[in-house]
Amino acid sequence: MGQMKIGWAKRNVSTDKPVNIPGQFHARISTGILDPIFATALVVESGGDLVCFVSIDVVVIRSFLLDNIREKVAKLLPGFPVEKIIVNATHTHTAPSHYHDGGWPRSKTLPTGPAPDDQMPIEMDIASGDEYRDFLSTQAAEAVAEAYNTRKEGGVAWGYGYAVVAHSRRVTYADDVSMRPGAVKNSTHGVNGHSVMYGNTNDPMFMGYEAGADHFINLMYTFDAENNLTGAIVNVPCPSQNSEGMYKLSASFWNEVRVQMKNRHGDIFVLPQAAAAGDLSPRILHYKEAQERRFKLKYGRERAFSEEFERLDIAERIADAFDEVLAWAKKDIRSDLPVAHSVETVQLSRRILSEEDVKEDREMLKGYENTPFKTDGTPVENLTVNSRLLASRHRCREIISRFEECKKSPTIPMELHTVSLGNEFAFATNRFELYMDYMHRIQARSPFPQTFIIQLTGVPGKDGGSYLATERGVWGRGYSASKYCNVCSPKGGQELVENTLRMLNDLKNKQ
């Protein structure tokens, strides 16, 4: 076994241009920067193998972004094994769109009637998503090259602690809410059953939450040759979507985490990872009044912006857990752990759509296509209404398209990474907003004492993201478990579990 080499780099990937902010069903055009968003790279090399982690403050990795990064790294570092670059999104809902502009047809012409050609009128300046993707992929690739070129001898320590960050966001009722008088039926949030994402808990039929929450925080610290702390992977099972409705760019609670780390440890690198959290979020649903009292007494001032205190409260808990684990984990800094990194493309069973599913959407689509774009409001009002209409059309068309794809292939491919550091701990990736139970199935049966799960990692090609609900979730229905949200079935979810465990066991056996 050789000496471990470690390299870090980061890039500020904010932009002051007005950009579309994805993550809702309507367009939001940025009005500035609340706090910086980053692309952070870490290279760990040892024992003849390496892994390159890249974390980006975006909602998802899509539109060939991973391919663009790998292509640019290949030019900057000839011979570098670009297939071993793992890129994950933190899932902030306040980052610029890197999606193809072609996926959002638009026109300066204001139509007076229905517009089935989807030439949505836009009366305001919006920077190109293609242009931002080029900028983002360039910055991320340069960070990878810098991390690799500046790698030095060092070591790692690891462990887990406790930080309450996420809560279940799927509320379950005794009745099927879709059968209640006045229930909405549409292609966005009108998909509820016994479960509702962010449902009302002050309801006589409220039975509890569909699943629990995971309060583990997995940590890998890096040190230089003199055992000085240089950075850390901070892996929490929660998306960073506190400020998901804002119109300013923000990394959500990861910004406050970085501030806490700088105040406590200086200019160390922080690489955020979201573990499985498809049914979790950083939002309290049934203790809101008690939470407001907590914040009023704890912080004793007015909020600077919406959800500031929620973000700060989370960051303080993460930083406290970080310090608690560091205090004992640094007693066992290891500089000779071999890296073993396996990459495979696995096939996962699709969520099969029925004739009834597609019939519903064909009918809904007719209504959406016959609905004219709004032209009598302000530019922002028109854009909000029209982009929501366009999103509804696209969701119906996606169901129709997937129905045809299911006939051709019952599975979807996914690039899966497993990485081990000696016999001590491991990482495993997936492309999804993965329901928590799948993570527990992997971790409980993993041959490694500690296994970091990384959700929303990029895969080659244009697609990415998508929720992966459990059997329980699909039964309950609701947003995140609907036909619109799941390209992969619970059967495919278990196939992900089994393939991950097979690859982890292979790594373990090779040690």
Secondary-structure map:
Layout lengths: L4 E8 L25 E9 L2 E8 L8 H12 L8 E5 L16 E2 L12 E2 L7 H21 L2 E11 L4 E2 L1 E4 L21 E3 L8 E4 L6 E9 L4 E8 L16 H13 L3 E6 L5 E2 L6 H12 L8 H22 L9 E11 L5 H15 L9 H30 L2 E11 L3 E5 L3 E2 L1 H10 L4 E5 L12 E2 L2 H6 L13 H21 L1
Parallel strand pairs: 3-4, 5-6, 13-14, 18-20, 19-21
Antiparallel strand pairs: 1-2, 1-7, 2-3, 7-12, 8-15, 9-10, 9-11, 12-13, 16-17, 17-18
Helix pairs in contact: 1-2, 3-5, 6-7, 8-10
Structure in a nutshell:
This protein has 511 residues and is of the alpha/beta class. It contains 10 helices and 21 strands. Helix 3 (253-265) packs across helix 5 (308-329), helix 6 (355-369) runs antiparallel to helix 7 (379-408) and helix 8 runs parallel beside helix 10 (490-510).
Question: How would you explain this protein's 3D organization?
Answer:
By secondary structure, this protein is of the alpha/beta class. It has two domains: 5-109 and 119-167 and 211-347 and 411-510, no CATH class; 353-408. It has helices at 65-76, 129-149, 253-265, 288-299, 308-329, 355-369, 379-408, 436-445, 471-476, 490-510; strands at 5-12, 38-46, 49-56, 85-89, 106-107, 120-121, 152-162, 167-168, 170-173, 195-197, 206-209, 216-224, 229-236, 269-274, 280-281, 339-349, 411-421, 425-429, 433-434, 450-454, 467-468. The strands form six sheets. An eight-stranded mixed β-sheet has the order 4-3-2-1-7-12-13-14. β2 and β3 (49-56) form a beta hairpin. The longest helix has 30 residues, at 379-408.
